[in-house]
Amino acid sequence: MTASRPIQKDYFFDSERKGRSRSRIFFVSVAVLGLIVTSLLDNWFFRVAYVGPERLGEVESRAWYQILRQTGDIRTWLIVALAIFAHAFWRAFGGNSPRIRLGGIITIALAPIVSGLFAEILRAVLGRERPLSEAGEFQGHIWRHVFAGVYHDGRWFDVSNLGLPSSHAAVAMAGAIAVARAFPGSGFVLVPIAFGCAFTRMLSGRHFSSDVFFGIIVGWAVGSLTAAAFRRLR
Asked: I want to staple 170 with a disulfide (CB 3.0 to 4.6 A). Which of 103, 186, 195, 219 is the partner?
Protein backbone atom coordinates (compact mmCIF):
# COMPACT_ATOMS: atom_id res chain seq x y z
CA MET A 1 0.00 0.00 0.00
CA THR A 2 1.33 3.41 -0.93
CA ALA A 3 0.13 6.90 -0.15
CA SER A 4 0.84 8.21 -3.63
CA ARG A 5 -2.79 8.90 -4.61
CA PRO A 6 -3.80 10.86 -1.46
CA ILE A 7 -0.58 12.86 -1.70
CA GLN A 8 -1.33 13.69 -5.35
CA LYS A 9 -4.88 14.71 -4.46
CA ASP A 10 -3.69 16.97 -1.66
CA TYR A 11 -1.09 18.48 -3.96
CA PHE A 12 -3.65 19.51 -6.55
CA PHE A 13 -6.03 20.77 -3.84
CA ASP A 14 -3.30 22.91 -2.32
CA SER A 15 -2.29 24.20 -5.75
CA GLU A 16 -5.87 25.22 -6.52
CA ARG A 17 -6.23 26.91 -3.16
CA LYS A 18 -2.94 28.77 -3.60
CA GLY A 19 -4.05 29.83 -7.08
CA ARG A 20 -7.24 31.34 -5.66
CA SER A 21 -5.24 33.11 -2.95
CA ARG A 22 -2.91 34.62 -5.54
CA SER A 23 -5.88 35.77 -7.59
CA ARG A 24 -7.42 37.50 -4.57
CA ILE A 25 -4.14 39.18 -3.70
CA PHE A 26 -3.75 40.36 -7.30
CA PHE A 27 -7.33 41.69 -7.37
CA VAL A 28 -6.91 43.62 -4.10
CA SER A 29 -3.55 44.99 -5.25
CA VAL A 30 -5.01 46.24 -8.54
CA ALA A 31 -7.99 47.74 -6.70
CA VAL A 32 -5.85 49.64 -4.19
CA LEU A 33 -3.32 50.82 -6.77
CA GLY A 34 -6.06 51.82 -9.19
CA LEU A 35 -7.89 53.85 -6.54
CA ILE A 36 -4.70 55.67 -5.61
CA VAL A 37 -3.83 56.49 -9.23
CA THR A 38 -7.34 57.55 -10.27
CA SER A 39 -7.74 59.66 -7.13
CA LEU A 40 -4.52 61.52 -7.90
CA LEU A 41 -5.61 62.09 -11.51
CA ASP A 42 -9.28 62.83 -10.83
CA ASN A 43 -9.12 66.52 -11.66
CA TRP A 44 -7.24 65.91 -14.90
CA PHE A 45 -9.58 63.11 -16.00
CA PHE A 46 -12.56 65.32 -15.23
CA ARG A 47 -11.29 68.17 -17.41
CA VAL A 48 -10.62 65.74 -20.27
CA ALA A 49 -13.84 63.72 -20.07
CA TYR A 50 -16.56 66.18 -19.05
CA VAL A 51 -18.37 67.53 -22.12
CA GLY A 52 -19.66 70.62 -20.33
CA PRO A 53 -23.19 71.93 -19.81
CA GLU A 54 -23.42 73.27 -23.36
CA ARG A 55 -23.00 69.83 -25.01
CA LEU A 56 -24.41 67.65 -22.24
CA GLY A 57 -27.94 67.50 -23.62
CA GLU A 58 -26.69 66.65 -27.10
CA VAL A 59 -24.41 63.86 -25.86
CA GLU A 60 -27.05 62.37 -23.55
CA SER A 61 -29.52 62.19 -26.44
CA ARG A 62 -27.20 60.01 -28.54
CA ALA A 63 -28.23 56.37 -28.93
CA TRP A 64 -24.78 55.00 -28.03
CA TYR A 65 -24.80 57.01 -24.80
CA GLN A 66 -28.22 55.72 -23.79
CA ILE A 67 -27.32 52.13 -24.63
CA LEU A 68 -24.16 52.24 -22.53
CA ARG A 69 -25.79 54.08 -19.65
CA GLN A 70 -28.75 51.69 -19.43
CA THR A 71 -26.42 48.80 -18.67
CA GLY A 72 -26.06 50.50 -15.29
CA ASP A 73 -29.79 50.06 -14.66
CA ILE A 74 -30.80 47.02 -12.60
CA ARG A 75 -33.92 46.56 -14.73
CA THR A 76 -31.78 45.88 -17.81
CA TRP A 77 -30.22 42.83 -16.19
CA LEU A 78 -33.54 41.63 -14.79
CA ILE A 79 -34.86 41.59 -18.37
CA VAL A 80 -31.77 39.64 -19.48
CA ALA A 81 -32.25 37.11 -16.66
CA LEU A 82 -35.95 36.75 -17.50
CA ALA A 83 -35.19 36.13 -21.16
CA ILE A 84 -32.62 33.46 -20.30
CA PHE A 85 -35.07 31.83 -17.87
CA ALA A 86 -37.73 31.78 -20.60
CA HIS A 87 -35.25 30.08 -22.95
CA ALA A 88 -34.35 27.45 -20.33
CA PHE A 89 -38.02 26.85 -19.54
CA TRP A 90 -38.84 26.47 -23.23
CA ARG A 91 -36.14 23.86 -23.68
CA ALA A 92 -37.31 21.94 -20.61
CA PHE A 93 -40.96 22.12 -21.70
CA GLY A 94 -40.00 20.89 -25.14
CA GLY A 95 -38.45 17.76 -23.68
CA ASN A 96 -34.86 18.94 -24.00
CA SER A 97 -32.68 19.23 -20.95
CA PRO A 98 -31.93 22.93 -20.30
CA ARG A 99 -28.26 23.71 -20.71
CA ILE A 100 -28.46 26.79 -18.49
CA ARG A 101 -28.17 26.26 -14.77
CA LEU A 102 -30.64 27.96 -12.47
CA GLY A 103 -27.70 29.31 -10.49
CA GLY A 104 -26.53 31.29 -13.51
CA ILE A 105 -29.95 32.86 -13.98
CA ILE A 106 -30.19 33.79 -10.29
CA THR A 107 -26.69 35.28 -10.44
CA ILE A 108 -27.57 37.46 -13.45
CA ALA A 109 -30.69 38.76 -11.67
CA LEU A 110 -29.22 39.10 -8.17
CA ALA A 111 -25.65 40.34 -8.69
CA PRO A 112 -26.61 43.77 -10.14
CA ILE A 113 -29.14 44.31 -7.34
CA VAL A 114 -26.67 43.45 -4.58
CA SER A 115 -23.92 45.46 -6.25
CA GLY A 116 -26.13 48.52 -6.67
CA LEU A 117 -27.33 48.38 -3.05
CA PHE A 118 -23.79 47.91 -1.76
CA ALA A 119 -22.59 50.89 -3.81
CA GLU A 120 -25.38 53.06 -2.43
CA ILE A 121 -24.50 52.05 1.14
CA LEU A 122 -20.83 52.85 0.52
CA ARG A 123 -21.78 56.26 -0.86
CA ALA A 124 -23.81 56.99 2.26
CA VAL A 125 -20.97 55.88 4.53
CA LEU A 126 -18.00 57.47 2.72
CA GLY A 127 -19.69 60.79 2.09
CA ARG A 128 -17.69 62.21 -0.81
CA GLU A 129 -19.57 64.62 -3.05
CA ARG A 130 -19.80 64.54 -6.83
CA PRO A 131 -17.39 66.61 -8.93
CA LEU A 132 -20.02 69.31 -9.55
CA SER A 133 -21.82 71.13 -6.78
CA GLU A 134 -25.59 71.35 -6.78
CA ALA A 135 -25.12 74.72 -8.49
CA GLY A 136 -23.21 73.00 -11.32
CA GLU A 137 -19.74 74.32 -10.42
CA PHE A 138 -16.62 72.15 -10.22
CA GLN A 139 -15.63 71.65 -6.60
CA GLY A 140 -12.92 68.98 -6.56
CA HIS A 141 -12.80 66.44 -3.73
CA ILE A 142 -15.26 67.53 -1.06
CA TRP A 143 -15.75 65.12 1.82
CA ARG A 144 -18.65 65.34 4.20
CA HIS A 145 -18.32 63.57 7.52
CA VAL A 146 -18.40 59.77 7.63
CA PHE A 147 -21.97 58.39 7.45
CA ALA A 148 -23.07 61.76 6.03
CA GLY A 149 -25.39 59.99 3.61
CA VAL A 150 -27.01 58.01 6.39
CA TYR A 151 -28.25 61.18 8.11
CA HIS A 152 -27.80 64.68 6.68
CA ASP A 153 -29.67 67.94 7.30
CA GLY A 154 -32.51 66.19 9.08
CA ARG A 155 -32.94 63.54 6.37
CA TRP A 156 -32.20 59.83 6.64
CA PHE A 157 -30.26 58.03 3.92
CA ASP A 158 -29.81 61.04 1.71
CA VAL A 159 -27.14 60.27 -0.91
CA SER A 160 -27.99 63.22 -3.16
CA ASN A 161 -24.84 64.65 -4.72
CA LEU A 162 -22.68 61.88 -3.25
CA GLY A 163 -20.61 60.02 -5.84
CA LEU A 164 -18.16 57.50 -4.36
CA PRO A 165 -18.60 54.84 -5.71
CA SER A 166 -20.65 55.00 -8.90
CA SER A 167 -23.66 52.70 -8.57
CA HIS A 168 -24.15 52.69 -12.36
CA ALA A 169 -20.62 51.35 -12.88
CA ALA A 170 -21.14 48.79 -10.11
CA VAL A 171 -24.42 47.50 -11.56
CA ALA A 172 -23.08 47.36 -15.12
CA MET A 173 -19.95 45.44 -14.15
CA ALA A 174 -21.80 43.04 -11.85
CA GLY A 175 -24.22 42.20 -14.65
CA ALA A 176 -21.42 41.75 -17.16
CA ILE A 177 -19.48 39.42 -14.84
CA ALA A 178 -22.61 37.43 -13.98
CA VAL A 179 -23.44 36.81 -17.64
CA ALA A 180 -19.78 36.07 -18.43
CA ARG A 181 -19.72 33.38 -15.73
CA ALA A 182 -22.90 31.79 -17.10
CA PHE A 183 -21.85 32.10 -20.75
CA PRO A 184 -18.05 31.88 -21.10
CA GLY A 185 -16.72 34.19 -23.76
CA SER A 186 -19.51 36.77 -23.48
CA GLY A 187 -17.35 38.83 -21.15
CA PHE A 188 -15.20 39.91 -24.09
CA VAL A 189 -18.24 41.91 -25.24
CA LEU A 190 -20.01 42.80 -22.00
CA VAL A 191 -17.07 43.89 -19.84
CA PRO A 192 -16.00 46.63 -22.31
CA ILE A 193 -19.65 47.74 -22.45
CA ALA A 194 -19.65 48.01 -18.65
CA PHE A 195 -16.52 50.17 -18.88
CA GLY A 196 -18.40 52.24 -21.45
CA CYS A 197 -21.24 52.74 -18.96
CA ALA A 198 -18.69 53.94 -16.41
CA PHE A 199 -17.25 56.38 -18.95
CA THR A 200 -20.68 57.92 -19.64
CA ARG A 201 -20.82 58.90 -15.97
CA MET A 202 -17.59 60.84 -16.45
CA LEU A 203 -18.80 62.42 -19.70
CA SER A 204 -21.84 63.80 -17.89
CA GLY A 205 -19.72 65.16 -15.04
CA ARG A 206 -21.57 63.06 -12.49
CA HIS A 207 -18.51 61.16 -11.28
CA PHE A 208 -14.78 61.33 -10.85
CA SER A 209 -12.61 58.63 -12.40
CA SER A 210 -12.03 57.17 -8.91
CA ASP A 211 -15.82 56.98 -8.41
CA VAL A 212 -16.31 54.84 -11.49
CA PHE A 213 -13.18 52.77 -10.85
CA PHE A 214 -14.37 51.97 -7.34
CA GLY A 215 -17.79 51.08 -8.77
CA ILE A 216 -16.16 48.74 -11.28
CA ILE A 217 -14.26 47.02 -8.46
CA VAL A 218 -17.44 46.65 -6.41
CA GLY A 219 -19.34 45.22 -9.38
CA TRP A 220 -16.56 42.80 -10.32
CA ALA A 221 -16.25 41.53 -6.75
CA VAL A 222 -20.00 41.17 -6.15
CA GLY A 223 -20.56 39.52 -9.54
CA SER A 224 -17.76 37.01 -8.93
CA LEU A 225 -18.84 36.22 -5.35
CA THR A 226 -22.49 35.82 -6.34
CA ALA A 227 -21.57 33.50 -9.21
CA ALA A 228 -19.41 31.43 -6.86
CA ALA A 229 -22.22 31.21 -4.30
CA PHE A 230 -24.73 29.84 -6.82
CA ARG A 231 -22.43 27.88 -9.13
CA ARG A 232 -23.62 24.47 -7.86
CA LEU A 233 -27.33 25.30 -8.10
CA ARG A 234 -28.90 23.53 -11.07
From this structure: 219
